[in-house]
Design brief:
Shape of chain B: rod-shaped
Largest interface: A-B, 23 and 22 residues
Largest sheet of chain B: 4 strands, antiparallel
Oligomer: heterodimer
Distance between the termini of chain B: 216 Å
Strand content of chain A: 25-35%
Structural class of chain A: alpha+beta
Number of helices of chain A: 12
Helix content of chain B: 55-70%
Number of strands of chain A: 20
Radius of gyration of chain B: 88 Å
Number of helices of chain B: 10
Order of helices and strands of chain B: HHEEEEEEEEHHHHEHHHH
Number of strands of chain B: 9
Radius of gyration of chain A: 29 Å
Shape of chain A: elongated
Strand content of chain B: 5-15%
Largest sheet of chain A: 8 strands, mixed
Structural class of chain B: alpha+beta
């Protein structure tokens, strides 16, 4: 339809009335929003006679409420200037989409490059964010979304935490990645396409893994060498998060080598984030990515040697998807516990006295528990330390060492509690595993600071 | 001149010719005899005769050499012309007496004969098919002479074996065979059978003539142009049909392959779905397990909170008790303090009242002694606030007579004096009395 037009009027004001005749008192045919386009057919008494193809009706609009362009090469510089201005103007996303569509139509094929699709994607992405704000009083939002949809911009809605989130499907960003574009445009595209909050929570493990593999491939298409540090930090964070998830998923499917590679990559990407250059808005993402990496970092750690004497843990497959952890001493089976989680053999640790044996068990993508087997007067007991007493979502707990007498365990916990990542460095009594000392920083607890093991300090991401 | 006259002149001319010929013969004989005598009896004549004889012998040797070469792969049959006996000669030199011996050389190598008369459909001797159509066939006959029988058959064996022996044989056999088949069969379908049948038939015939048949090959079959076009289109149709058959077979195979693929895909998808289902189940179980592990913590947390709440309750109770006691003590202290204050106040009021009453008594005494003191005091009090007072003149009354409760009809001068000092003091200082009332409230 657009291809047959020569002169279009782009509506620039919200709630512009389309009147039946060229009079202010005439009946309203429709209410137009920013960015809508109309075919210009004439002019009368300060009104433009137009035809609205979307609603299939003719009408009149005030001249000052629209901008008229001829869709040929002569209009390209004007349209480009407006698109450039609107690109960073919040609230004018629908108008920006309208202008970009007009520019795509008017510009010759040689001038249609990735920057146009970058603009289109930026507008759509911002509109989706605007529509996903919790308490919005924006009355024009519905109109703007309809305008965007009329230009073929698709949004998907995702049910999350009792509310609906609107996500852009990323068509324009895919084109940016295919066509090239500047490093920053590619980064914007990759980040928008791999947003974690736009992953449908209803996806099954198989689809989720395929999606994560695709996300990793998209993130690999951006070259960080040409980006400023604060922007490349974002890319490293996203990569760390995706690879940490992939590490769990590959390991879950029995592909230990791929899992180890992904885990190593996630740790490396997290290490490449320069904290001093981290933008304020990225700090929560940094903490969340660190927790994810911490939850699955055992995938790439070397497996310790089996002790020559004393109690040790043996892993064996149980029912489909189940791993059984057996605590043995010589040939005697002391305890057995099976789990549907992923037991990391690299995380098996024993206290110097041999009275405590612990192992990390990852039950979800970002949720790793610590299983503690401890010998008491009436035999061996097994306890589970969870990252936090909340809904299992994001968190990990890891053993940081023992006090020299073996009566206390040092653990580091990090979990997402009420939307904030909360670290805890605790000293637990061996018998009850109840915290004796809790601190938000390791240096706030003298015991922790003194006895945490060098091995833990070298490998953990909690001390970042 | 008529015929009779001509006939009468013939005998005359014949006799004249005869006379001339006899004369010439005699002259020639005379010259030969004289030449012979010259050769024999004169030295020069003998030398010339010897020379001529030598030249004659050399010419004879050159024209029919006495020695001949039999090449390898050949066999020579030397026939004595006087006795008629043949002799077989193998490779090497052979002696031939001129005009006595005659040598026939035969090659024992394989030879190929290709008759060219019947290669074209419009040639001199084309073959005929069962439909009566002319067709040309290129035939190659590979043969060799039987070395064992060459000597015996040499007398009867022609020089050109191919043309003299083979061509007639194959011509007859082939014509018969081709006449039994259709062009289509000759051209494409029965070619091999025909070739085989011909070979089998020709071989014994040629063996009888001392020729060993190696093979018969049918080459290009030349058809009449119209027929060729028709046949080609027919063959093309056939080919198409064949192609279609193969295409259908291929499609059939593809369909089967697709079916198998679909089946495999179905199984794969079923397996994948099953695996995905299993993975989902495992993930759900893992999540439930995590939840199960958290519950004790929650319980512990709740218990701890309960204990904390109890501790807080006890603490608050103790605190409240202490506070209430403290307040009680404070209240008691305060009541005592208030009582003391009240007593002090009462004492103060009493003392003040006493002092005031004494003061009033003193004032009353003073006023009773000096009645104009009231006016003076009033005027003093008003003097700084009122500069001009415009009021209707009250006949004989004081300007502020109302305030003082004087009757309007009588002037101050004629009015009675205040009844008592207490009245006067109460009216002169209304604010003071009001103030005391307020204080008491």
């Amino acid at each position: 339809m657009l291809a047959t037009l020569l002169t279009v009027a782009l509506v620039v004001q919200d709630q512009t009335p389309l009147r039946a005749t060229a009079q202010e008192t005439a009946t309203k045919q429709a209410v137009l929003f920013q960015g809508e386009w109309l075919e210009v057919r004439g002019e009368r008494q300060g009104f433009l006679q137009v035809y609205d193809h979307r609603r299939e009706r003719p009408g009149y609009v005030r001249e000052h409420q629209v901008r008229v362009y001829t869709l040929d090469e002569a209009s390209v510089p004007q349209l480009q200037a407006v698109v450039g201005f609107l690109k960073d103007t919040p609230g004018a996303e629908a108008l920006g989409i309208g202008y970009t569509a007009a520019l795509l139509r008017a510009a010759p094929a040689s001038q249609v490059g990735p920057e146009l699709f970058d603009a289109m994607g930026t507008f759509a992405e911002r509109l989706a964010r605007r529509a996903s704000v919790r308490r919005s009083l924006d009355e024009t939002l519905g109109g703007h979304l309809e305008v965007a949809s009329s230009y073929g911009v698709k949004f998907t809605s995702i049910e999350q935490e009792d509310r609906t989130r609107l996500c852009y499907d990323g068509e324009a960003f895919r084109r940016v990645l295919a066509l090239g574009g500047t490093a920053q445009a590619r980064l914007r595209a990759a980040l928008a396409l791999t947003r974690p909050d736009c992953v449908d929570p209803a996806l099954g493990p198989v689809e989720r893994q395929a999606l994560n593999a695709w996300r990793a491939s998209v993130l690999e298409q951006v070259d960080t060498s040409q980006l400023p540090t604060w922007l490349s930090n974002r890319l490293h964070l996203r990569r760390a998060e995706v690879y940490a998830t992939l590490a769990y998923q590959w390991s879950r499917r029995g592909e230990a080598r791929k899992g180890a590679e992904a885990s190593e990559r996630s740790v490396r990407e997290l290490a490449r984030v320069l904290r001093t250059e981290l933008a304020d808005e990225d700090r929560s993402a940094y903490a969340a990515a660190a927790v994810r990496v911490g939850a699955s970092r055992w995938a790439s750690e070397p497996v310790p040697e089996k002790p020559s004497s004393g109690a040790f843990l043996e892993l064996s497959p149980g029912k489909p998807g189940e791993t059984c952890v057996r605590l043995k001493e010589a040939k005697d089976l002391l305890r057995e516990q099976c789990t549907y989680g992923l037991v990391w053999p690299a995380s098996i640790r024993r206290s110097p006295q041999g009275t405590v044996v612990s192992v990390a068990v990852q039950l979800l993508e970002g949720w790793t528990e610590l299983w503690v087997f401890h010998r008491e007067s009436d035999g061996w007991k097994q306890d589970v330390l969870s990252p936090a007493a909340t809904e299992p979502n994001l968190g990990y707990v890891e053993l940081a060492g023992y006090t020299p007498d073996g009566s206390r365990l040092l653990v580091a916990r990090e979990a997402l509690v009420e939307g904030r990542v909360k670290p805890l460095f605790q000293v637990l009594k061996r018998e009850t595993l109840l915290p004796e000392v809790s601190a938000e920083r390791p240096q706030d607890s003298g015991t922790f600071q003194r006895w945490s093991s060098a091995e833990w300090r070298g490998g953990t991401v909690a001390l970042r | 001149m008529n015929v009779k006259e001509k006939l009468s002149e013939v005998p005359k001319k014949l006799s004249e010719v005869l006379r001339q010929s006899v004369f010439l013969t005699r002259a020639a004989a005379g010259s030969v005899v004289s030449k012979a005598r010259w050769f024999i009896y004169t030295p020069r004549g003998r030398r010339v005769a010897v020379g001529l004889t030598t030249v004659g012998l050399v010419a004879l040797a050159a024209s029919s050499p006495p020695v001949c070469m039999v090449e390898p792969g050949q066999v020579g049959i030397r026939v004595n012309l006087l006795s008629g006996n043949p002799t077989e000669l193998r490779e090497g030199w052979a002696l031939l007496v001129p005009h006595v011996h005659r040598l026939h050389l035969y090659s024992l190598k394989d030879q190929i004969f290709r008759p060219d008369r019947s290669t074209q459909a419009n040639g001199p001797a084309p073959f005929q098919s069962v439909e009566g159509l002319s067709l040309g066939v290129e035939i190659s006959v590979r043969y060799a002479l039987d070395p064992a029988r060459v000597a015996t058959l040499a007398s009867s064996m022609p020089e050109d074996v191919g043309r003299e022996i083979i061509e007639p044989v194959i011509d007859g056999v082939m014509r018969r065979h081709f006449a039994q088949h259709t062009v289509r069969e000759i051209f494409s379908t029965h070619r091999m059978q025909i070739q085989k049948a011909i070979t089998e038939e020709i071989a014994p015939l040629m063996a009888a003539d001392g020729v060993i048949l190696r093979s018969v090959t049918l080459g290009n079959v030349d058809l009449p142009s119209q027929y060729r076009a028709g046949l080609e289109s027919l063959l093309a149709e056939g080919l198409n049909a064949e192609k279609m058959r193969y295409t259908l077979e291929l499609k059939d195979k593809r369909v089967k392959e697709s079916e198998l693929d679909a089946e495999a895909d179905k199984v794969r998808r079923e397996k994948a779905a099953e695996a995905a289902g299993n993975e989902e189940v495992i993930a759900a179980k893992a999540k439930a397990e995590a939840m199960r592990h958290i519950l004790p913590f929650k319980e512990k947390e709740i218990e701890q909170r309960r204990l904390e709440a109890e501790a807080a309750k006890v603490s608050r109770l103790t605190h409240a008790t202490a506070e209430s006691e403290a307040r009680q003590i404070e209240a008691e202290g305060e009541s005592v303090a208030r009582r003391k204050l009240a007593e002090a106040d009462a004492y103060r009021v009493e003392v003040t009242g006493k002092a005031a009453s004494e003061q009033l008594a003193r004032d009353a005494d003073l006023i009773s002694r000096n009645p104009l003191l009231i006016q003076k005091t009033l005027a003093d009090k008003l003097s700084d606030k009122i500069q001009v007072i415009i009021a209707p003149p009250q006949a004989g009354g004081f300007i502020a007579g109302n305030l003082l409760g004087q009757p309007t009809s009588t002037g101050y001068a004629s009015g009675a004096a205040p009844k008592s000092q207490s009245d006067l003091s109460a009216r002169a200082e209304p604010s003071q009395s009001e103030g005391s009332e307020y204080q008491e409230e």
